[in-house]
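We were asked to recover a plausible sequence for a given structure. The inputs and outputs are reproduced exactly as logged, with field labels preserved.

PROBLEM: sequence recovery
POSITIONS: 284
GIVEN STRUCTURE:
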């Protein structure tokens, strides 16, 4: 049976410590940059490659600020009140996906205004790239030995020192596989051709919500929170339920009310006619 014993520090040069957790975020952002650049180059002028770097900066800002603030608000509010500076200790882990998502959505709204894109044009574009970042983050959780699962006797159970001597589900790896790799494959395939506006965003919300809700049954609830209700509902599931509902609503609305016109979304056509004159000749 594997006993977790990975040093969270990847490199140390004197007082300078480079943590694996931070490196995993860099891997996620790098993957996002490569994929967004790839999609931008093949968008016939709808997206400009030069915007990708700025877009990634806004995303990173939203992830880090939103993730840390969300973690403190949703899971460690009392500790935050006792030590407000805990907010800045990103290297210790403790990033809330739901807080990070809200941070990214706010960032996308403001950056969309800057480049004359609608909110859902922005979210539909970035949604397929997000799961790889989530997968990288879950690998960081595994290296840190945090967010481990419930006690089990399955053959692949692992002992995490932070969780005591009993073997547990490596639930962070389950999340990395489902909300990371599997969701990325589904979204990348689905978004490879034009879809009604909001549909890609809806599929992301639905896919992530279902993956997270499911894995929460294997993940150890936060010790200071326990079960929120019914002796099984966790905080992660409670925060994920609105995502599932919104995901379904977005997809239904997209196909019923935002159907493609001649194979293209109307807001994309409008943007290309006003901001990409060469490409717009192809869609008249």
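RECOVERED SEQUENCE:
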């Amino acid at each position: 049976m594997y006993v977790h014993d990975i040093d969270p520090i990847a490199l140390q040069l004197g007082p300078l410590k480079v943590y694996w957790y931070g490196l995993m975020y860099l891997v996620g952002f790098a993957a996002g940059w490569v994929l967004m650049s790839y999609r931008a180059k093949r968008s016939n002028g709808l997206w400009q490659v030069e915007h990708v770097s700025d877009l990634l900066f806004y995303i990173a800002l939203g992830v880090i600020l939103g993730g840390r603030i969300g973690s403190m608000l949703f899971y460690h509010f009392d500790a935050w009140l006792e030590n407000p500076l805990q907010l800045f200790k990103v290297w210790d882990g403790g990033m809330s996906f739901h807080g990070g998502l809200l941070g990214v959505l706010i960032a996308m709204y403001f950056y969309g205004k800057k480049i004359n894109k609608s909110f859902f044009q922005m979210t539909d574009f970035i949604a397929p790239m997000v799961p790889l970042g989530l997968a990288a983050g879950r690998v960081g959780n595994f290296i840190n030995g945090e967010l481990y699962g419930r006690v089990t006797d399955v053959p692949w159970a692992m002992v995490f020192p932070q969780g005591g001597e009993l073997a547990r589900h490596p639930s962070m790896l389950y999340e990395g596989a489902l909300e990371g790799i599997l969701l990325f494959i589904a979204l990348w395939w689905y978004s490879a051709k034009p879809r009604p506006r909001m549909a890609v965003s809806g599929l992301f919300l639905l896919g992530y919500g279902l993956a997270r809700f499911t894995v929460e049954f294997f993940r150890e609830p936060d010790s200071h929170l326990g079960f929120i209700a019914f002796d099984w509902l966790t905080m992660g599931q409670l925060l994920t339920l609105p995502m599932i509902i919104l995901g379904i609503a977005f997809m239904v609305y997209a196909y019923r009310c935002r159907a493609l016109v001649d194979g293209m979304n109307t807001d994309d056509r409008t943007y290309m006619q006003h901001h990409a004159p060469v490409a717009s000749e192809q869609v008249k």
